[in-house]
Amino acid sequence: MASKNKFEIVNGNVHISREEWKQIAEVTYREDYYEELTSVTWTATNGYIKNAKFGLLHRYMMQKWYGNEVFDEMTKRGWVVDHMNNNGYDCRICNLEFLPSRHNVAKGQILDVEAEEMRLHIALNIFKDFTTGLYQISIGFNDNIYFYNAETKENQLINTLYLLYDCDYKQVIYDAEEILLKYQTEKKFGLGKLNFIDYRCEFPPKIEFTERELDEIVNGDRCFIERDGEIYFVPGKNNWILSAHYEEGWKPSL
Length: 254
What we know:
- By secondary structure, the chain is of the alpha+beta class.
- The chain has a domain at 113-254.
- The chain is built from 7 helices and 17 strands.
- It has a 4-stranded mixed beta sheet.
- Helix 2 crosses helix 3 and helix 5 (111-118) packs across helix 6 (169-186).
- The radius of gyration is 20 Å and the shape is globular.
């Protein structure tokens, strides 16, 4: 029987959809399981994607990427598969990680809730780069935040911040919680006590807006600006950064 889903390969990911779904499910594309993945019908239940033959989609993906032996051992130890961004439809391997059940519950009650509450101010997400085995925290800034460079003593408006980690996933979660707590209470956060091994910043380009463009941005009628053939996103009224994607292959600077 043919699948009732629609499948489309987009930028190295498989988009899975059904007419009645409110959003698209995603998995990381790999040729060896694509035919199997698309041979069945996937359904949405309580925020997760599943199939009667293969079970939950996020667990299916972890079995494919880590192998049955590792998957069965982690399950036996009481570890679950965590959606790092708390989106059950996002089953890309960069969004999945093993986590002890009690820590998964705690993350769901603290980090996942606070990250969503703060998203329109600072959009924080955690990713795992399977190509390096390292974690990344990405933060897209919707509020006007300035990055202070201790070496140059300069303050500069920042668009996005990326933190690279080579440690236990639980430690990355604790750092993410610390960042959100500091920003909630102080409207700023420092990097000195965090456990990352490298960082990168992206700063907004120096663009002069016309009066019309500025009015449209402020009113929420425009969120993109084109200059010299380049398209730039400009956060404004009703237009926000919701996630800054991780940088695949990033390793610490020597």
